[in-house]
Write a structure and sequence with these properties.
The chain has about 725 residues and is of the alpha+beta class. It contains 25 helices and 21 strands. It starts with a helix and ends with a strand.
């Protein structure tokens, strides 16, 4: 019976006319089944859909991949040159920056292969193959090898992926791995063969005054004037295989790269985006949207705002701290502002009302179909929400405070302290030596080049009492008893003792302990107590939430299956899960509110209008002002002589799409997506075709900056450009 339900959904989601224009992060492997070609061509697609994705030949898909851990990048030359966003490359740029070589401030421009900088830890991943394994999962459920609930879990899916790789012709090939994931809340499953390149080098990055122009103020906003791009290059061994860094590696001769168009764009032009959107929640119920608002967004906003206030002040006072915390601050600020905007947009765009209407319609549909599962599923989800809301709220406050806020002791290697205590008690010399070696790694993890002990001390003094204020007593880690009893509730005194006197506070303390480690010292140490208490409480809260979740995955599976059936013949796209997707739309302006009209593009003139030399977010480089004054734009200018910077499309995107190629109807690159608009930040939950816009940097602005400001004609010359 379960098998039949799954197959029915596959048909419902595949076999009918396309959905409302622009909505949907579509699976490449289902485009033919879902008859997307007709709609895409009606909106302006000029190439055959088979040239976008076809498992039997090279397509546009083969020029797009995962950049780093959470962005998209595209190949723009035969020699493995990657284009992505500046904010995607920001961690790498920061990694290579110092007070002496401040690439964040000054930019970086490699004029030759020899000048390109190896970036340890940075990878680029291509999707080699996509396989439907739905029937395999259903068969395993039928045979009792796995329960339906377990089929969602990482344990089962990892084993499935590993088993399928062993049977594949790609087994043993360099850089190949597999990943199996559920779609439509477990109604379909796909297996992805991934090829990972681990020698990726930094090639070009504009100064932050271009790549981050507008900073926090302009983030998620339109009009935008940000040159949000950076370039990297894939290196491989002499045979073109993935390989760890070696001086002998060479630029990868890629199978496919994107052609770049300088033809420009007009309102109404077709636009499509291929990339790896991270996460959407389009199938949430009304109660689950409230959970998102109150249990996740509010705690995230609250904690991050306090931490960012401290970081902002400390970064302004020290270039060293500014460089150390640049990437951390940017990452934190991005989804702090996103959470604020999402909660506002949910209210402004009446998302809760829309969800309530959908549920009423679904209830009527369930009654008509006389389907008991459909009739009861929303009520069961509501019960789940009541159960988990306090736990979800506590856990969000916890993770924001102790796992992404306070950095001191934030390493799993701290657990070796207890291993050391045990080894000392048992007098196991070998185990003592092993534990000490791990603790040395722990100290290096904490006191890394991007950590400032005094900045973190100030963060801790604010966040520890804030956490205690926001959660019930049972959610407090055990060290709060030490604060209460030993330090009489004085958080400042506790933090100073922790940051001054504990084993991991400084090199002097650590070395003194390592020279004479004792069980007594470990038992009395504040950092040992703090780290153990944080680890213990996280596990406790996570376990409680996991238990409270109950059969929520199965409930979502039923609800999504029912919604697909209710909305037939219109197909629905599955939620984003950082797998490769295609979205299509058009270049389009919008009207955010009465009396306000935003045109679909911006120009360099707007950069000059926003310039504020006293505000670091709006500083304009002297070289860019000179190019503007002389109108030295070359072939990248608009017909009216202006220099385009950014543009808007109606494409459906979310986080993870950063860096994604925006392509025209011929499949040619016209820009790189980097943001969404403020008015539609509820779009991850409910898409609004009238308001939702993707913000992209114009490829002409990218190339203008590379050539005229960066002086990298060498990079322009290796690209395939059409005018």
């Amino acid at each position: 019976m379960k098998k039949l339900k799954v197959l029915a959904l596959a048909l419902l989601c595949a076999a009918f006319s396309p959905a409302k224009a622009d909505e949907g992060m579509w699976l490449l492997q289902m485009m033919q089944e879902q008859n997307l070609a007709d709609r895409m061509k009606a909106q302006g697609l000029k190439i055959d859909i088979a040239s976008i994705y076809n498992p039997e030949q090279l397509t546009l898909k083969d020029a797009v991949g995962i950049f780093g851990g959470g962005c998209t990048g595209e190949i723009i030359s035969p020699n493995g040159l990657i284009l992505t966003n500046h904010h995607c490359g920001y961690g790498a740029i920061q990694q290579h920056s110092s007070v002496e070589h401040d690439y964040l401030t000054d930019g970086f421009w490699a004029k030759s292969y020899q000048e390109e900088i190896p970036t340890p830890g940075l990878t680029f991943r291509f999707v080699e193959r996509i396989v439907d394994v739905t029937e395999k999962v259903n068969e395993d459920i039928r045979k009792g090898k796995v329960t339906e609930a377990e089929s969602f879990g990482s344990k089962y899916l990892k084993k499935l992926a590993a088993d399928e790789l062993k049977k594949s012709d790609l087994k043993g090939k360099p850089g190949i791995s597999t990943q199996a994931l559920p779609f439509y809340e477990g109604n379909k499953f796909y297996l992805f063969f991934i090829k990972t390149y681990s020698d990726v080098r930094m090639v070009a990055a504009p100064p932050s005054s271009i790549g981050k122009f507008g900073g926090e103020t302009d983030n998620w906003m339109w009009p935008r004037h940000t040159g949000d791009f950076s370039m990297f290059r894939i290196y491989a061994d002499k045979d073109g295989n993935p390989a760890e860094y070696s001086a002998e590696n060479v630029p990868l001769k890629v199978k496919k790269h994107l052609t770049i168009s300088l033809k420009g764009l007009q309102e109404g032009d077709y636009a499509m985006i291929m990339g790896f959107p991270g996460s959407t929640s389009r199938y949430l119920t009304e109660s689950e949207v409230r959970l998102r608002m109150e249990g996740i967004n509010v705690p995230r906003i609250t904690v991050r705002e306090e931490r960012q206030n401290i970081l902002r002040k400390e970064m302004a006072a020290s270039d060293k701290v500014r460089i150390q915390y640049a990437s951390k601050f940017a990452g934190s600020s991005n989804y702090w502002k996103n959470s604020i905007g999402m909660n506002k947009a949910i209210v402004d765009n009446k998302v809760l009302e829309t969800k309530a209407e959908q549920e009423a319609k679904f209830a009527a549909f369930a009654k008509e179909k006389q389907n008991a599962d459909y009739a009861t599923v929303v009520g069961k989800i509501d019960e789940y929400v009541k159960r988990v809301t306090p736990l979800r709220t506590q856990l969000t406050y916890f993770t924001e405070t102790f796992r992404s806020g306070i950095e001191f002791t934030l390493t799993s290697k701290m657990e070796a302290l207890q291993d050391l205590a045990t080894a000392l008690q048992k007098n196991k010399k070998k185990n003592v030596e092993k534990a000490i070696a791990t603790l040395k790694e722990a100290y290096a993890d904490i006191h890394n080049k991007d950590y400032d002990h005094e900045v973190d001390r100030k963060v801790a003094k604010v966040l520890l009492p804030l956490y205690a204020e926001k959660v019930p007593a049972e959610a407090l880690p055990d060290f709060y008893q030490t604060v209460k009893n030993t330090f009489k509730g004085d958080y400042n005194a506790y933090v100073d003792a922790l940051y001054n006197n504990s084993i991991f506070a400084n090199e002097k303390n650590f070395n003194a302990f390592i020279e004479n480690p004792t069980v007594e010292a470990i038992n009395k140490d504040l950092s040992a107590e703090y780290a153990a208490a944080v680890s213990k409480k996280y596990k406790e809260l996570a376990d409680k939430l996991d238990q409270a979740n109950g059969d929520i995955n199965l409930l979502h599976k039923t609800y999504v299956r029912g919604l697909c059936e209710m909305y037939a013949p219109t197909p629905k796209a599955p939620d984003a899960n950082f797998t490769i997707r295609l979205t299509y739309g058009n270049v389009k302006a919008y009207d955010p509110k009465d009396g306000v009209h935003y045109k679909y593009y911006t120009t360099l003139k707007g950069v000059m209008e926003k310039e504020d030399p006293n505000n670091p977010e709006f500083v304009v480089p002297a070289k860019l002002k000179e190019l503007y004054a002389t109108k030295n734009y070359g072939r990248y200018a608009l017909p009216n002589g202006e220099m385009p910077t950014c543009f808007l499309t109606t494409n459906d995107i979310t986080g993870g799409n950063s860096g994604s190629p925006v392509m025209n109807g011929n499949g040619e690159l016209i820009g790189a997506a980097f943001d969404g608009n403020w008015e539609s930040l509820s779009g991850d939950i409910n898409f609004d075709n009238n308001l939702q816009r993707c913000i992209a940097v114009d490829i002409r602005y990218v190339l203008f900056i590379v050539e005229k400001l960066g002086g990298c004609k060498n990079l322009i010359d290796e690209m395939t450009i059409v005018e």
